[in-house]
Each structure stands twice: as C-alpha cells, then as structure tokens.
Amino acid sequence: EVQLQASGGGLVQAGGSLRLSCAASGFTFDDYAIGWFRQAPGKEREGVSCISSRDGSTYYADSVKGRFTISSDSAEGTVYLEMNSLKPEDTAVYHCAADRIPACPGFRGPPEYEGQGTQVTVSS
C-alpha cells in the first residue's frame, strides 16, 4: 500500500520558517520523484518542488525559488521541505506526492500518488 504522510504544517508570521516532512512507503523509490504541491481555497493546484529519488536532482516553482529547499533521506524514506521567508501567499494545504520520473508531481496534472495534506498558514 502506497503511503505519503505529510506533517509539519502550522501557523507562522510572515518572514518565518516551517519544515514539512513526508514519510513515503509502498513503492520503488528509484522510479519516482517525490515532492509537494499546494492548493489554496478557490485556487488551482500549484506544484511547489520535487526531488528525484534516482539522482537527487531538484526542481522548484519560480514562486518559491531561493526560499524553499527540498531534501530527502532515502534510508528513512522521508522527504523534507524547508520553507523560509514565508509570505501570506504561501498559505495553502501542502500535499506530498509522487510521480514516475521524469515527471515532477503536481506540476502537470494529477500525480500518480498523493497523500493527505498539511495546512500552512502565514499571517501578515
């Protein structure tokens, strides 16, 4: 059974930081990129970032470049998203997801696997 369990969301003031975690299991990691997409009320799904389990390459949406950093611990099956300099427009439910390489989950259509989200709220 595929599981993508996101955690680490919360309420933070603008300029603050949060670290999201995604515990992934139930699929062959080397075949997949794991990452995050977000969805705010009334808005379209937006891909945020992903990392290839095969070679560690990363990809970021322009809106988060320079502020967010994705990393992974393959031994633990965990992917992290370090979010710094948060802005109110970053407020959304953040979902962990996985898609077969070379796709980056959440950037083009629904990912193959997605988990329950974690709420991130940034106050101004």
What would you say this structure looks like, in words?
0% of the residues lie in helices and 54% in strands. It is mainly β.
List keywords for this structure.
single chain; 124 residues; mainly beta; 54% strand; globular
Alpha plus pi helix count: 0
Shape: globular
Largest sheet features: 6 strands, mixed
- The counted number of beta strands is 10
- Largest sheet strand order: 2-10-9-4-5-6
Percent strand equals over 45%
Question: Low-confidence parts, pLDDT < 50 over ≥5 residues?
Answer: none
* Run of helices and strands: EEEEEEEEEE
List the helices and strands and how they pair.
Elements: E1 3-7, E2 10-13, E3 18-25, E4 32-39, E5 46-52, E6 58-60, E7 68-73, E8 78-83, E9 92-100, E10 113-123
Parallel strand pairs: 2-10
Antiparallel strand pairs: 1-3, 3-8, 4-5, 4-9, 5-6, 7-8, 9-10
Brief overview:
With 124 residues, this protein is mostly beta strands. It has no helices and ten strands. 0% of the residues lie in helices and 54% in strands.
